Amino acid sequence: MCYKRTIPAVLLFASVLSGCQTQLVNTEPQSGYVSIQSKVLSHLPSTARVVISFIDDKGVVKQDELDGIRSFPYYYRLPEFSERPPSSVEVNISIGSGESVLSGEGVVSTGANVNIQLQALTGKDLANTYWQAVDISGRGLPPTVKTTLAFNNKGKLSGHAGCNHYRTAYSSNANFIEIEKTELTHQICSSPIMYHENRYLHFLRDAEYYSIDKEGNLSIYVSEREKPLKFSAATYQEVEVTMRAF
What we know:
This protein is mostly beta strands. The chain has two domains: 13-120, Immunoglobulin-like, CATH 2.60.40; 129-243, Lipocalin (Beta Barrel). Helix content is 9%, strand content 47%. The radius of gyration is 21 Å and the shape is elongated. The N and C termini lie far apart (50 Å). Residues 1-26 have low confidence and may be disordered.
């Protein structure tokens, strides 16, 4: 089985997929590759289905599929085409078997890379939205504990985790989301509440993608967990205190 590997552009040397062979290139390759880029995300989780299509004037010449992208930019070596050389490349990204949520396309030109910048097709913007947790990956919340989540419009989020206030940075594109390590206040609560808080913050850090249903409820899906973090919509006033705790 072949495994495709990513190539961080900042590295002096990196490995590039060429069939099942790996070769070294010096920083960013100059030609013969599809360069897939995202201005917002650093990677795509393994739950992301990445389909690369090579197209000529008659339709699709060849397709390949990847499970996630470990880091952007990602360089995919252009296959050799003895017949029907493609004129363009399309990249479509979905979550599992769902519809595409990110896409991009580029023109094939001799002696150059095909540069593709991914663009969101769907996904509700989380900026200036406010939430209250109702379930943490299938285990509910301790009685009387309030856990909140607030996204501002500058890539920051904050909230109350059950005992402590927290804040961190996030980035999102389409339905994909990345959440950085949180900063916390330093309160100590009972063991059940601290367990809930630690579990919640751990899952938040492992967030991969989200959805908002017709009723306006938010679900954040976490790496290696079947059940998501679930939130109901809240008002600014309900979570305001958690946003000015630091």
